[in-house]
Amino acid sequence: MAETEDGHVDVVGMWVTEDGHIRQELLPDGRYDEARGDRASAYTGRYTVTGSHLEYVDDTGFTATGDIRDGVLYHEHLVLYRESNPS
């Protein structure tokens, strides 16, 4: 997993649960957009990265955390995998 210039893990991109039900896009501007099933933008907000730890603040004020371990995003009770770009 690549690091940014400041030593934090590069998390930008689409992260997806194994069954594809939850899709969390981490945007380069520090925002996220999470879809659940057919519900686009079910949750939106901002995130910050410190090393391999993420702090989320939903637009409604709800907070959550996540950690990247071995290329996998553990976000509260969810396990998300980085979606590969098609070649």
Supply database-style keywords.
single chain, about 90 residues, 8-stranded antiparallel barrel, globular
Report on this structure.
The chain has 87 residues and is an all-beta fold. It has strands spanning 13-17, 22-26, 31-36, 39-50, 53-58, 63-69, 72-75, 78-82. The chain has an 8-stranded antiparallel beta barrel. Strand 4 and strand 5 form a beta hairpin. The radius of gyration is 12 Å and the shape is globular. The two termini are 19 Å apart. The relative contact order is 0.22. The mean pLDDT is 91.
Number of helices: 0
Assembly type of the chains comes to single chain
* Terminal residue distance: 19 Å
Largest sheet: 8 strands, antiparallel, barrel
Sheet with most strands: strand arrangement: 1-2-3-4-5-6-7-8
Number of strands: 8
Shape: globular
Which percent band covers the strand fraction? over 45%
- Tell me the series of helices and strands, N- to C-terminal: EEEEEEEE
Structural Rg = 12 Å
Average pLDDT figure:
91
Low-confidence stretches: none
Helix content: under 10%
Task: Kindly name the structural category.
Answer: mainly beta
